[in-house]
Amino acid sequence: MTTALQEQNLFSLDRASLEKWLITHYQKTNDANYLIEAAVAVLVKNAFNKQDFSFIAKDLVRTIFLTRNDLQFVRQHCIHFREYFNKDEWCTLIARLFKSPEKFLDLTELSRSRTEYLHPLLHSGCQEVTKRLDVSFVYEGQRVVGKDIMGKFKTPESADLLFVLSTLKLFAGKDLNQLTKIL
């Protein structure tokens, strides 16, 4: 098996296999940044999927955010995992990862403004998905069209979910057109 899960596998494996792989990969590599980005991608997968991918690797993600000091490249993604923490833990996490609450707000402003309303979809569990959508969004300055994406929501919501993927270094330089085909 490769050192990093093929990005397409993030969208094609079932929950049990994916969660097992993520945990095992982290144990072997200790790569917290990769694990967090992969978990964010799985949250997006959850929104587009009938199956329950919510709270993927919850205990591991919580431990990473509450104990690791090397998360400067992924700390802004903590916003997508707010539901993993109680109020006190969340305050601790913000204090650990950011110099001030204002810094947290600054670094997460774009994500919060575009995706905070979508958190119920990221953490929804099983859901009925009855239609397929064509979604257009901009990634690295290029228009990307996702055709036949599963969803039960409007195109702007789908585009905002795909925006989350575009913020991940995991997909930097990758063709998101290919990824949208397998969502």
How would you describe this structure to a colleague?
The chain is mostly helical. It has one domain. The chain has nine helices and two strands; from the N terminus they run H-H-H-H-H-H-H-E-E-H-H. A two-stranded antiparallel sheet has the order 1-2. Strand 1 and strand 2 (142-151) form a beta hairpin. The longest helix has 17 residues, at 32-48. It is globular, with a radius of gyration of 16 Å. The protein starts with 6 loop residues before the first helix and ends with a helix.
Cα separation of the termini: 23 Å
Using DSSP, what is the number of strands? 2
Helix and strand content put the structural class at: mainly alpha
Write down the overall mean pLDDT: 80
Strand ordering within the main sheet: 1-2
C-alpha Rg (nearest Å): 16 Å
Number of helices: 9
- Largest β sheet strand count, sense and barrel closure: 2 strands, antiparallel
Structurally, the number of domains stands at: 1
> What portion of the residues fall into strands of 2 or more residues?
5-15%
Ranges where pLDDT stays below 50 over 5 or more residues in a row are none
Helix content: 40-55%
Shape: globular
Order of helices and strands: HHHHHHHEEHH
